[in-house]
Structure formats: C-alpha cells, structure tokens
Amino acid sequence: MRKVSFAAYGGPEVLRLTEAEEPRPGPGRIRIAVRAAGVNPVDWRIREGQKLGAHPPAPLPAGLGLDAAGVVDEVGEGVEGVRPGDRVFGEGHETYAESAVLSAWAPMPEGLSFAEAAGYPSVMETALRVLGEVGVRPGQRLLVSGAAGGVGSAVLQVARARGIAVTGTAGPANQEYLRSLGADATTYGPGWTGRVRRIGPVDAALDLAGAGVVRELVGLTGEAGRVVSIADLTAPEQGVRFSGTAGDVWAALEATVALLHRGELRIPVTRAYPLAEAAQAHADSQAGHTRGRRVLLVGEGSPG
C-alpha cells in the first residue's frame, strides 16, 4: 500500500509517498480501506518534531494522520457491531495511507461523503474537550480567537447548541461565515480587543490559532484560569492552560453523529487534495486563514 511518511523533521518538503506493508488490527481495533484522511495542525507540528505537552517528538521514520473515513475490511479480536463493508469514520494511527487501523469509530451518517466525515473526529474531540476545560456555561459569553478553522467551526456550533454566546475573531473574508454559525464576529489586528469589548463582556476565551494573543485574552477575561490554548506552546508560561491531551474520542464521535442528525453541525471541506499532495496540504494548513477543514483523498474518496 501507499502511505505518506517522513524520515527527517522539517518543512512540508520532507513528506514522501512511500510503499509500506498493510497494518493489521489488534484486539479492539478495525482496519479500513481509507477513502479520506483529515489534515490537522497537530500533523505538521509532529512533522516539525515539536514536543507536544508531555509527548516527545515522534520517532523516525514516521507516518502521519489521526482522522479517516473509509470502508471496513478487517476486524480485530473482540470487536462487535461492525463488519467488513461498513462505512465508518474515526480516529486511528497513520491515516495518511491507503489502509489504516482505527482505535475509535462510528458509522457514517447517511448523506455524508468520505471527505466530509474525515474532517470531524479530532476536531470534535478537541472542541468538546476545550469547552469542558474552559468551564463556560449556558448564558455566558465565550471568545474564540481563530474561530473559522475546523476546531473553531465546531466550537461555535456546539456552544450555540448549549446556549452559550460566542464572539469569534477571524480574517475579513470569514466574517459572514462566523455569523452563519451563530457567532458575533470581528476581525483580528490593531484594535481587536476594543472591538471585542464593544460586543460584550467575555467570561472565557479559547486560543485556537496561536497568534500570540494569550496575554490579551487573559486581560479580556480578567483571569488566566478562564483561558485555554491549543496552539500556543508558551501559554503555560503566562499561567494559561495548554490543552494537548486527547479526551474521549468515542464520546466525541457519538456527539458528532447526534449533532449531524439534528442538523446542528456542519464543518465544510475547504479543499480536498490527492494523497500525493500531502505536502501542499500541510503548507496551506500552516499558512492559516482556513475556513473549515482540509482533507486528503485516497482511492475512491469523494471531495464532498
């Protein structure tokens, strides 16, 4: 099978499409023929050799990818409720490949393409985790810095479903997009904190973009304990929690399916790339200004 891997830390150019043996699912795991794989910021952080929280850099050579959607072709020992031929989406290991093992999965909802489904698992797990960690409650206002990306899109929609008001910051081109998801939108850049204050008092804040605004977020909320970052590795130096540890993926997938069925969640696919263009997908992801998700297409995957 073909898979994307890297033998040295560095920029997108270190990614290579290589031949590898097909993985086998152990107990409690399933293997899928991958049709689409999600591209997450954590993927290029791993590629660069960054130390993420308590996790050391990935040993080399390494593959990439956490999220995928595809067709089950092998079931590990002890797995029930799924069989070969089922269409599923979920989280696993080295999903930038034609075949991957998943450790958590759910049936794909009707009407969802493989490309769309591959964009949800890690994004929803992260969104639900940070909403819990920041402690925002119904009736309060949450500020989301970098709100137009995948996690931001999920946070806005989950918050709206929970009765939480949201102020979101993004570039000029994404203001209407944020409003369509139920947020009060404003741009970042000079004077952004004043624009946020004019919208309304902020009870809690999330830093999703790592744009060096943690100090300002603390000032807006009045307390470091009301701010959580998933993108600024220097956040702990400023008394702010850095959230980089995965939570309950099974619960996140269950919540995703429920929200999709109720029509309360939709994260658009900004762009779908062939597997061979993983380097370009990483370069575009790192450039920022993303709306929704980026995915890699594999085999018979559909761009959605």
Report a brief summary of the structure.
The protein has 304 residues and is α/β, with parallel strands linked by helices.
What keywords describe this structure?
alpha/beta; 304 residues; Rossmann fold; 9 helices; Quinone Oxidoreductase, Chain A, domain 1; six-stranded mixed sheet; globular
Topology:
Blueprint (H helix, E strand, L loop, with lengths): L1 E5 L9 E4 L10 E10 L1 H7 L14 E2 L3 E9 L11 E7 L5 E9 L6 H5 L2 H14 L6 E5 L4 H12 L3 E6 L4 H6 L3 E4 L4 H8 L4 E4 L6 H8 L5 E3 L11 E2 L6 H13 L7 E6 L3 H10 L5 E5 L7
Parallel strand pairs: 8-9, 8-11, 9-10, 11-12, 12-13, 14-15
Antiparallel strand pairs: 1-2, 1-4, 3-5, 3-7, 3-15, 5-6, 6-7
Helix pairs in contact: 3-4, 3-8
Report on this model:
The strands form three sheets. Strands 3, 5, 6, 7, 14 and 15 form a six-stranded mixed β-sheet that branches. Strands 10-9-8-11-12-13 form a six-stranded parallel β-sheet, with helices on both faces. The protein is globular and about 55 Å long. It has 304 residues and is an alpha/beta fold. The two termini are 24 Å apart. The model has no long low-confidence stretch (mean pLDDT 93). The protein has two domains: 2-120 and 267-297, Medium-chain alcohol dehydrogenases, catalytic domain (Quinone Oxidoreductase, Chain A, domain 1, Alpha-Beta Complex), CATH 3.90.180; 125-242, Rossmann fold, CATH 3.40.50.720. It contains nine helices and 15 strands. It is 27% helix and 27% strand. α3 crosses α4 (150-161) and α3 packs across α8. The chain has helices at 41-47, 114-118, 121-134, 150-161, 175-180, 192-199, 214-221, 249-261, 278-287; strands spanning 2-6, 16-19, 30-39, 62-63, 67-75, 87-93, 99-107, 141-145, 165-170, 184-187, 204-207, 227-229, 241-242, 269-274, 293-297.
